[in-house]
Design a protein that fits this description.
Helix content is 30%, strand content 16%. It has 945 residues and is α+β, with helices and mostly antiparallel strands. Among the domains are: 3-113, no CATH class; 129-302 and 305-314, no CATH class; 717-937, no CATH class. The strands form eight sheets. It has an eleven-stranded antiparallel beta sheet. A hairpin with a 2-residue loop joins strand 15 (385-390) and strand 16. It starts with 57 loop residues before the first strand and ends in an 8-residue tail after the last strand. The model is unreliable at 1-56, 589-641, 701-715 and 740-757 (pLDDT under 50). Residues 595-612 have a biased composition (Acidic residues). Residues 589-637 are annotated as: Disordered.
């Protein structure tokens, strides 16, 4: 199918009715590749460009006594579309994120899209990368040298090649090359790089493979520049005399650097190693003894694709070496590894992905090893094997394998990986992430919507133009480069794959992004007091892990494991299926131990985690947690049974979170509040702040939606909460019976995650209670915010002392003897529009403040009023809008009846003090041109001065 014949939107698929078929999911056994007949693709024609149902779409099974509806991926996407178009956020999010549909649990079975025997595929072979350890640079090309090396070009990533050597610190056997201190000497071509390795600097306790500044300086001053002087005497005059002088020259006025590059002709390149060693040895740089070069060519698979035949492999390998300027002499003298890839694509332009249960078969075939060995290195508990779930699906995943000596097979494979090419559209290396990613800090800063919207649109666009391929790559010694992955068994790969219409494949991810974006948006609109609870913050913390794992391998480092245990459903350890786990755990009888291996095999164990920890240390990121971690504030008691007898897993085919509580006017959160918060270390890893700081940094100032800074200055204080008076009427209003109740339930301290906040107290009870509380609090707050004169020693504008201010009531604002309240003020009679405007600013319909607003953010009543308005209007229902109008109507009537005078409230400040001699009178006539509080007298009333 060509691009133009597809849907214009992956979410515009017209859903077809479910074909209710009750059948069990039958996984393929390792020793049986016969595809059951009921797995064949239905021959349903594609009408109106609608993706066809591949096989039976829905069935029902009993899983440990629980009735579960099993859906194909097509049906899951179609049902997501139906619920989304129904404009019911709660049902949509619960279906997509929890797998709940009208109270029933669903599970997703992607194996129903197993590739058919007759599916026509294209198979191409290629050479993607080349790595060589050599003593001399026998290259047929000039290289561009950076006198000051870019630290980002330092080799830090594991290349799965090892080197043994002796230095001043002892004998070192099979050291990972990326652990040896190194620098980038230069580049040639678009993708090619030369690094210098310094085995003499290696120590087991050295945690950084970069050189320090003293080592960089010694290399340039005592090695590189003297070598260039010998190789190109005239050209060396343009090289900076010292490393420090290049640093000085490169630095601009604003502190940025612009470093030079120099070209060394290809006639001189083969002699660089010899001259470098001579210069460094002659200048007593002893740590440079034994230096060698690492040549790297990467990312060139598109330039040399060929048929997977022996002849094509031989011809293409020779062309590859010539095209990249690698001489025969270099190959003969060095240790070279080449990455050989096999890429499978669908002629019908479907998206392909690897089945998890295919790893054993593909690895066994590619490495040409015994079944028991292949089984050992494709188990989740094996130190050789890393599984990469695709699109949150347990049954669909790639993998990465470092076989070790005993499992490397006849081709001596150093590394194997199976993956899909669709990751290319989100590839963006940054820190220890390899793809586009969202952070918890960005969510708290309310930047998540832009990211989610961009990711959602990317998936939509990809459904029309990107048809994912499946790849298997191996890193082998170059002597086997033209022998591995040739004359392949196409049926083996057909049986290893699932295939999906791109509209379905990309819509799966798009709907998952949309669902979590909805959750985050609902949280962002909720009152801060609800967002800051542990169960709501835990749901927020789940977002980066969930969203980033759609297109990258879900993080399972120590901090992420702490998070995973809190956000995914748990199952009994003894009943857990290893293939449904996100990281290796002991699960009783299913736990497997590797066969006894040699020393190299043992050294490989934990290498990926070691590299991740090294990377995090270099990025100042703490990602480790242990039993000594302090549990955060508001811990909840776990149920009496031992929770460590349970493990998190993908129980229903795709990642579903623990049940989410969603309800109109409430902040989404996890339903089970008994689950404790993550450890402090994990919390900081996710949000880049501590739990105790979140309220202050992110939630207190959210009344100001237009301000760029969300922090309230520390010098400001909030008004005090009003103390009820004895014998005062409990209610001043009677509207509760006339408007719909949309307030939160009354706070029950025994059931709440936190003690009730002061806002909770103001908003507790029915509408009449709330409006009464807010009204009485407003009288106190308005009085408390009367400004002072400039200067700490000058007297205040208000003559009331602290106790009198705390005792104000309605009579205070009915007293027209202004001198009993003010030392000085400006006053005039208000027009009707001015009086109404004052009410609108004190009791706004939309409480959004400009960045420089004063007074309002510190008043308790205004903060609680903002929450009240959000509760009434966040869903836009007509009855809620009516409720707000009625509430404001009774407040305005009360305002008009009570206030004989009021502050001349402005949008930016409650108390306006600019001099207004032309229109206003004032108590102190002699200060007519000075600032003083401006008040309005209600029409029909007369001020007494």
């Amino acid at each position: 199918m060509d691009e133009d014949s597809r849907e214009h939107s992956p979410l515009d698929v017209v859903p077809e009715p479910f074909d209710i078929v009750f059948s069990d999911h039958i996984p393929y056994a390792h020793d049986d590749w016969d595809i059951p007949s009921d797995r064949d693709i239905n021959n349903i024609p594609r009408e109106n460009n609608i993706p066809s149902n591949r096989t039976r779409n829905e069935s029902r099974i009993s899983l440990n006594g629980e009735i579960v509806d099993t859906l194909s991926l097509d049906s899951y996407v179609r049902r997501s579309k139906i619920l989304h178009e129904a404009d019911n956020n709660v049902d949509f999010c619960k279906f997509v994120l929890n797998g709940l549909d009208e109270g029933r649990q669903i599970q997703v079975d992607p194996i129903r899209n197993a590739m058919d025997h007759n599916h026509v595929v294209n198979v191409a072979r290629d050479y993607d990368s080349l790595l060589g350890l050599i003593d001399e640079l026998h290259l047929d090309a000039a290289i561009t040298i950076s006198p000051v090396c870019k630290i980002e070009d330092t080799l830090r990533k594991n290349i799965h090649i090892r080197h043994s050597f002796i230095n001043g610190h002892g004998e070192h056997i099979n050291v990972p090359v990326h652990h040896i201190p190194n620098l980038c000497l230069g580049k040639w071509g678009t993708h090619n790089m030369v690094r210098v390795l310094f085995p003499g600097l290696y120590r087991q306790d050295r945690h950084n493979s970069s050189l320090d500044q003293a080592e960089y300086k010694a290399f340039y001053d005592l090695g590189l520049r003297p070598a260039i002087k010998e190789l190109a005497p005239d050209a060396s005059d343009e090289w900076m005399p010292t490393y420090d002088s290049e640093i000085f020259r490169a630095q601009g006025k604003k502190g940025t650097f612009s470093f030079q590059t120099k070209t060394l002709g290809k006639w001189a390149v083969p002699h660089v190693g010899e001259e470098l060693r001579r210069a460094l040895e002659g200048n007593d740089v002893h740590w440079a003894a034994g230096l060698m070069f690492l040549v790297q060519i990467k990312g060139v698979k598109s330039s040399n694709g060929h048929n997977p035949s022996s002849l094509a492999a031989q011809v293409s390998l020779q062309e590859f070496l010539v095209d990249n300027n690698i001489s025969e002499e270099a190959i003969d003298q060095g240790l070279w590894y080449i990455d050989v890839g096999l890429e499978i694509s669908s002629q019908s332009q479907d998206c392909l992905a690897w089945r998890t249960d295919s790893h054993f078969h593909v690895v066994k075939n590619v490495l040409n090893i015994a079944s028991r060995v292949a089984d050992r290195i494709t188990q989740l508990g094996s130190s050789k094997y890393v599984r990469d779930p695709t699109s949150h699906l347990a049954a669909v995943s790639g993998c990465r394998i470092s076989p070790g000596v005993r499992a490397q097979g006849k081709w001596e494979v150093a590394y194997l990986q199976m993956y899909t090419t669709d990751k290319a559209i989100t590839y963006r290396p940054e820190g220890f992430h390899w793809g586009k990613h969202l952070t918890g800090k960005e969510i708290l800063q309310q930047k998540a919507e832009d990211y989610c919207r961009g990711l959602y649109n990317l998936y939509r666009d990809a459904s029309q133009k990107n048809y994912g391929h499946a790849r298997v790559e191996v890193r082998v010694p170059i002597k086997y480069g033209d022998e591995v992955l040739v004359d392949i068994d196409v049926d083996l790969y057909r049986n290893s794959l699932v295939s999906f219409d791109p509209v379905i494949w990309w819509s799966l991810r798009a709907y998952r992004v949309l669902a979590f974006m909805t959750v985050l948006n609902e949280q962002a609109m909720a009152p801060p007091s609800q967002r800051s609870t542990n169960s709501a913050l835990l749901l927020t913390a789940a977002a980066p892990w969930f969203l980033n794992g759609l297109h990258s391998t879900p993080d399972n480092g120590s901090c992420s494991r702490d998070l995973i245990r809190k956000i995914l459903p748990l199952v009994d350890r003894d009943e857990a299926n290893m293939d449904c786990l996100l990281y290796p755990v002991h699960v009783g009888a299913q736990t497997r131990q590797d066969e006894e291996g040699d020393d190299e095999d043992e050294e490989m164990e934990g290498e990926d985690e070691e590299d991740a920890d090294r990377n995090r240390r270099e990025n100042n990121i703490s990602a480790e947690s242990d039993a000594s971690d302090r549990v955060l504030v508001n811990p909840r008691t776990l149920p009496s049974n031992n929770q460590w007898d349970k493990v998190p897993c993908i129980r229903h085919g795709i990642v579903f979170l623990r049940e989410i509580y969603m309800f109109p006017s409430k902040a989404p959160r996890f339903n089970d509040r008994t689950v404790p918060m993550v450890t402090d270390k994990t919390f900081y890893f996710i949000f880049a702040t501590h739990r105790a700081n979140v309220d202050h940094e992110y939630f207190k100032a959210q009344l100001s939606l237009l301000t760029t800074s969300r922090r309230v200055p520390n010098k400001t204080r909030r008004t005090a909460i009003r103390a009820p008076k004895v014998d005062e009427p409990p209610k001043l209003f009677s509207v509760a019976s006339r408007i719909a109740r949309v307030l939160p339930e009354p706070v029950e301290i025994s059931d709440a995650e936190d003690m009730p906040t002061q806002n909770d107290l103001l908003l507790s009870g029915d509408h009449d209670n709330v409006l009464t509380n807010l009204w009485r609090q407003s009288l106190l707050d308005i009085t408390d915010r009367v400004p002072n004169r400039r200067g700490a020693t000058n007297e205040t504008y208000c003559v009331l002392d602290k106790n009198e201010r705390a005792a104000v009531d309605e009579n205070t604002y009915q007293n027209l003897r202004l001198r009993e309240f003010f030392d000085d003020c400006q006053y005039r009679t208000a027009t009707e529009s001015e009086w109404n405007a004052v009410f609108d600013r004190i009791w706004p319909e939309v409480p959004v403040l400009p960045a420089k607003a004063q007074n309002y953010r510190q008043m308790r009543y205004y903060i609680a009023w903002t929450e009240f308005v959000l509760l009434l209007t966040r869903n836009g229902y007509d009855e809620q809008k009516t409720a707000l109008k009625m509430a404001r109507a009774v407040l305005q009537q009360k305002f008009n009846d009570t206030f004989y005078w009021a502050p001349y409230a402005q949008t930016e400040r409650l108390w306006y003090t600019k001099a207004d001699a032309a229109k206003s009178q004032r108590i102190r006539a002699e200060d007519a041109n000075k600032a003083a509080p401006r008040i309005l007298i209600r029409a029909g009333k007369v001020a007494i001065v």
